[in-house]
Amino acid sequence: MRAILAGGGTGGHIYPAIAIAEKIMRKQPDSEILFIGANKGMEKELLRNRGYKVRFIDIRGFSRTKPLKNIGALCKLIRAGGEIKGILREFKPDVVIGTGGYVSGPVVREAGKAGIRAFVHEQNAFPGMANKMAEKYAEKVFLAFGEAAPFFKSPEKTLVVGNPLRTEFITANAVGYREKLGIGNGEFVLLCFGGSLGARAINENFSAVLADLHRESDMRVYFVTGKAHYAKALLTLQDAGIPMGDRVVVMEYTDQMHAYMAAADLIISRSGALTVSEITACGKASILIPSPNVTGNHQFFNAKTVADRGGALLLTEDALSPAKLLDAVLRLKGNKSLLNTMGAASERLGRLDAADVIYDCVSEKGSHGK
């Protein structure tokens, strides 16, 4: 199979594309895969480190608040169309899969217009503009959450599959990570993180909460601050006299998030689509604090999907305080039955077969197949 995967800007768009690429290569090892990304997104680092071929397009998204900037964005979009056509002619893909971000829509559009089988994957409960515009040219629109379906015009195209996850998260619960991390049987494990760059509001509130939590003798805390906030968080905790070591572990970043999620009893985090899918795949109870600074407030809808089904508590950032966060943690820590019920509800939402379902669809000869 010759496949192009287009998407980027954030890890939430790139990691699902990587999971799909890994599935294709496991099923058809002689496949050739090309990624198309934007030249200013996270994809450059994430994809080249994994040895994938990547072509970068000079393109950017449209601004909702600064309309004059859209003149330049439109010029870039027009130029990108010609560049994308050239890549399609050169690579001759059997399929093109867009996973969101502003580079995704134009690639899917040009593929569809050229008669190449094109697909879209939407990670969020509230779809992005790029994927909604690309629907017209797609054979199938894969959804992580059923709540996204009403936002698309052709219900016959949509298929709820979940978010494709890296293999580490699919197998996480089968590995004894609590034992590997040296966690005792009676310890309550709390994981808090806000994404690779971190989240200031979560870090500040959780740092204040730790002043009380570190006194819980049966609690172990893993606090991933994000690279941008590590130094400040560390200084705040030191000034508050909070001892760091085996029981309070502070990290700026980890590439072993699957291990800490699998070991956790409770998770505090943002509610990006991929994070929510990883938490539910691991079947964990969570306190989700959506970022208010995202397009369409989509993190709120992701969190609401889990909270409405009993798998999470939803705390909006404008209502967040150390007192409320501490109360929520201690309430769940002290109610094992509720925690187990939430974990079970989370697990029911988790999908481990998304990449398999997507592979089965794209590998079939469709209406535009050759």
Determine the N-to-C terminus distance.
Answer: 12 Å
CATH class value of the largest domain: Alpha Beta
| CATH topological fold name of the largest domain | Rossmann fold
Strand order of the largest sheet: 3-2-1-4-5-6-7
Put simply, the count of helices is 15
Order of helices and strands: EHEHEHEHEHEEHHEHEHEHEHEHEHHH
Structure class: alpha/beta
Give a brief outline of the structure.
By secondary structure, the protein is an alpha/beta fold. It has helices at residues 11-27, 43-48, 69-91, 104-113, 129-134, 167-170, 177-180, 200-213, 230-239, 257-263, 273-281, 298-308, 322-333, 336-349, 354-363, and strands at residues 2-6, 32-38, 53-57, 95-98, 117-122, 140-143, 158-160, 188-193, 219-224, 248-251, 266-269, 285-288, 312-314. The protein is 42% helix and 16% strand.
What would your notes on this structure say?
- With 370 residues, this protein is an alpha/beta fold.
- It is 42% helix and 16% strand.
- It is built from 15 helices and 13 strands.
- The protein is elongated and about 65 Å long.
